[in-house]
Design brief:
By secondary structure, the protein is mainly alpha-helical. Strands 1, 2, 3 and 4 form a 4-stranded antiparallel beta sheet that branches. Helix 3 runs antiparallel to helix 5, helix 6 runs antiparallel to helix 10 and helix 8 crosses helix 10. The two termini are about 30 Å apart. Strand 1 and strand 2 form a beta hairpin.
Length: about 230
């Protein structure tokens, strides 16, 4: 689609004080479901407007991750909030950080160094101690810990939940997503933790184009999710 506007800016939404819209030549942006794109966070509205303003003659939706996340939050989360919470909570039952390699020893050491501090963080800050195993076979986690993780998900607003969903699904880890949401990890730290196994394999065997593309997508998603969290906190 060609660019059809000259200026993008954030402004007060028409439906009430304290809400901020993205305006293209003074006209409010709509979501794909034709809802008004209005949020409670001025910094977020300004960041989305900056994405629109940075577009060239042709619009590139992939260069507007905050716009995409916000539309998902406004159009999809209200209708499927409970389903989304349940799907994210299920990641805790098979939490990536809990399944360690026994061999080779170097990989096990890297996993422990990257993952154990995050599990310690989850125990301290989420009241969710999780069991570590050296197997690929599913091992049940304490019910009270799973309940605590679910409460942490339920505490997210719709915008935060959309960002959390992106982070968890991209990293494969609920703990990484929750740590990112609370500012306990940078996007680079989250990427490194999520990609411990893949990075080790690349060191041994090299990286093909498909793996490179996948990893670039994970990095992009984590950066977008973290920026959304940060803007909402600000």
């Amino acid at each position: 689609m060609k660019r059809f506007y000259k200026e993008a800016a954030a402004g007060e939404a028409a439906e009430g004080a304290g809400r901020f819209a993205v305006l293209l030549d003074g006209r409010p942006v709509k979501t794909p479901a034709k809802r008004a794109l209005a949020v409670d966070s001025r910094p977020l509205a300004e960041a989305i407007a900056a994405e629109w303003q940075a577009q060239g003659e042709e619009l590139d939706p992939q260069s507007m991750p905050l716009m995409a996340l916000t539309c998902s939050a406004l159009d999809l989360i209200p209708q499927r909030r409970e389903q989304e919470i349940g799907e994210l909570a299920a990641y805790g039952e098979t939490e990536l950080l809990c399944y360690r390699s026994e061999k080779p020893g170097e990989l096990a050491e890297r996993q422990a160094a990257a993952w154990q501090p995050l599990l310690d963080w989850a125990e301290r800050h989420l009241d969710a101690p999780l069991l570590v195993v050296e197997t690929i076979t599913h091992s049940p986690q304490p019910p009270q810990s799973l309940a605590a993780l679910r409460r942490a998900i339920e505490a997210q607003g719709d915008l935060e939940l959309a960002a959390l969903s992106l982070a968890v699904r991209s990293s494969g880890s609920l703990v990484i997503g929750l740590a990112l949401s609370r500012g306990a990890l940078t996007p680079e730290e989250a990427f490194d933790a999520a990609e411990v196994d893949a990075s080790y394999q690349i060191e041994l065997w090299g990286e093909d184009s498909e793996a490179e593309k996948r990893r670039a997508g994970v990095r992009r998603d984590l950066e977008a999710a973290e920026r959304m969290f940060r803007l909402l906190r600000g």
